[in-house]
Write a structure and sequence with these properties.
Elements (H helix, E strand, L loop, with lengths): L19 H10 L3 E10 L2 E7 L1 H7 L21 H9 L7 E8 L5 E12 L5 E10 L1 H45 L2 H31 L8 E4 H16 L4 E6 L5 E4 L1 H17 L6 E11 L13 E10 L6 H5 L18 H11 L3 E6 L5 E8 L23 E5 L3 H13 L3 E5 L2 H10 L6 E4 L1 H18 L4 E6 L14 E5 L4 H12 L10
Parallel strand pairs: 7-9, 13-14, 13-15, 15-16, 16-17
Antiparallel strand pairs: 1-2, 1-5, 3-4, 4-5, 6-8, 9-10, 10-12, 11-12
Helix pairs in contact: 4-5, 4-10, 5-9, 6-7, 7-9
């Protein structure tokens, strides 16, 4: 019987050692930058023996300019040198070293990369060379920086808003008592000038607080549909005067359509601050340019969390050919109290106000600047289709301010509460003042007569304050409501528009008295009362 021969199993393709040319071609097609360097240290790093095309493109250098050079010439700094030397001293196969940092890619250009140093061994296992792989992380790094910057501005905004609210209470007391003292002839004869100086300083401080509130997006706005081209044109005269005598203004108003929903007074403030900021950076014969245009952001271009949403925008750009800013200044540009001006020459609130107004208006702001290359601030405001507002600007006649009605005052700051209650009582009103809604509820229960008006800082009273408003309105249907707050307050349902209103802190006591009388007379708060 014949033995059967074993059937040979089919063999797969044999793996062969790739040639040097094949390896070089493979490395050349990689998307990541690759260097192969000698393992021995030189004064400027490891000597480069090979560089693939991706690395040449990343660093903007041809191969002939890399061969034989030290790898340290590619790095923007040499902070990794100490760790690299320690790694080389104990170099063994399989032991890699990773890091990250900037590569220098020509004048004014840098890439942020991660890198891995890997040992390359020969057939005997001896390390003879080092391969370095670079991955471009610039876009990811920029996105992280944008997110961190946005988070920092949001945190600073929250802090600024809280501080501004408490500071507003102090200013209300200072300015209010100044008004009371000036109304007393005996005091005014002896200290009118001093009281006036205190009052002027208080009003100036109130202006700074409004800028902080604008930055924190808690400022009350009065938005209207306006033509941005017309708004810029109407303010061009005052902007030109700011630049005189040796600087000029040019306009290029190309936006069509150009309608946006904004508070015209706040956009005027934006134009003023950006023009003043540009003026201070200009040399004699310098120029400020204001441009408008229409932009449509497509959906496919909205790729990152920090990108603008897709939509139709009107662009407002303010440019100058001044000194420009470095990267450090741009990183902190919109933070409150940050300024590059000399001490005493600026508050550092101008650009934070611009940032807050743009954000609160639903817009976006971007800055392009470099040292000696000027600056451009680009503001994108959502385009609207409605007709331009034509509201009358003539205020109605002032109402009388005296009365005998009952007023409930809910104010958490005892000094502010005492001042408001005092001025209302002196004007004839019966005032029930409390620090909280719960205490005010007890006062109302003990009060046998109807309540005509509630004055409350609803932004501080919270849900308990909202509940108290509803309860008081249910038992006193003719109740009038006056919000006093540092932030914008929405109108409440159930109250007729002429029965509710709002005053933004800090307000003058004369303004408060007119607003109270106007509400009690069923006229709402007129333009002059605000």
């Amino acid at each position: 019987m014949k033995k059967k021969r074993p059937v040979a199993k089919p063999r797969g393709p044999r793996l062969t050692r790739p040639s040097a040319g094949l390896l070089a071609s493979a490395l050349g097609t990689l998307g990541e930058g690759v260097l192969i360097a000698d393992r021995h240290w030189t004064r400027a790093g490891l000597r480069i023996l090979f560089a693939n095309q991706s690395l040449c493109a990343m660093t903007n250098r041809p191969v002939r300019n890399l061969h034989g050079r030290a790898h340290g010439e590619l790095h923007a700094d040499h902070d990794h040198f100490p760790d690299l030397k320690k790694w080389l001293a104990r170099l063994t196969p399989g032991l890699a070293l990773s890091g990250e940092g900037y590569l220098a890619c020509g004048p004014g250009r840098r890439l942020y990369t991660t890198w891995i140093f890997s040992p390359v061994a020969d057939a005997r296992g001896r390390v003879t060379h080092v391969s370095i792989t670079y991955r471009d992380m610039t876009a990811k790094r920029r996105l992280q920086e944008d997110l961190i910057h946005a988070q920092r501005l949001d945190a600073v905004g929250r802090l600024a808003g809280g501080v501004a609210h408490d500071f507003n209470n102090l200013l209300s007391v200072i300015n209010g008592y100044c008004e009371i003292l000036r109304s007393k002839p005996a005091v005014a004869r002896h200290a009118a000038r001093e009281i006036g100086e205190i009052h002027r300083a208080g009003l100036h401080a109130a202006g700074l607080v409004r800028q902080l509130l604008a930055f924190s997006r808690r400022q009350a706005l009065d938005p209207k549909v306006v033509s941005l081209n017309q708004l810029v044109q109407e303010n061009s005269d005052i902007l030109e005067k700011l630049l005189q005598p040796d600087k000029s203004l040019t306009l290029s108003l190309q936006a069509s359509p150009d309608r946006v929903r904004v508070d015209p007074m706040q956009i005027q403030q934006v134009l003023l601050n950006l023009t003043i900021n540009a003026r201070d950076a200009l040399a004699p014969e310098g120029r400020v340019s204001i441009r408008t245009d229409f932009r449509e952001i497509k959906t496919d271009r909205n790729r990152r969390a920090t990108d603008m949403p897709a939509g139709r925008y009107v662009l407002l750009a303010v440019s100058d050919n001044g000194t420009g800013m470095d990267a450090e200044a741009k990183a902190h540009l919109f933070e409150p109290f940050f300024t590059t001006k000399e001490q005493g020459k600026g508050t550092g609130l101008g650009l934070s106000l611009v940032y807050g107004i743009v954000q609160q208006s639903g817009g976006h702001i971007f800055v392009q600047s470099a040292p000696s290359a000027g600056s451009t601030f680009e503001i994108y405001l959502p385009s609207v289709q409605e007709s331009v507002s034509t509201e009358p600007v003539t205020p109605p006649a002032l109402p009388t301010t005296r009365g005998r009605e009952a007023v409930v005052l809910v104010e958490g700051d005892p000094v502010v509460s005492k001042m408001i209650a005092g001025i209302l009582t002196a004007d004839g009103y019966r005032v029930l003042a409390a620090e909280t809604a719960a205490k005010a509820r007890l006062l109302v229960r003990r009060h046998s007569k109807p309540v005509d008006l509630l004055i409350i800082d609803s932004s501080r009273a919270g849900p308990a304050g909202d509940k108290f408003i509803r309860e008081l309105h249910a038992t006193h249907p003719k109740l009038r409501l006056l919000h006093t707050s540092s932030a914008e307050v929405s109108r409440l349902p159930g109250f007729a528009s002429e029965y509710q209103g709002a005053l933004t802190k800090p307000y003058a006591l004369s303004t408060l008295l007119r607003a109270v009388r106007s509400l009690l007379d069923g006229k709402g708060i007129s333009a002059d009362a605000r």
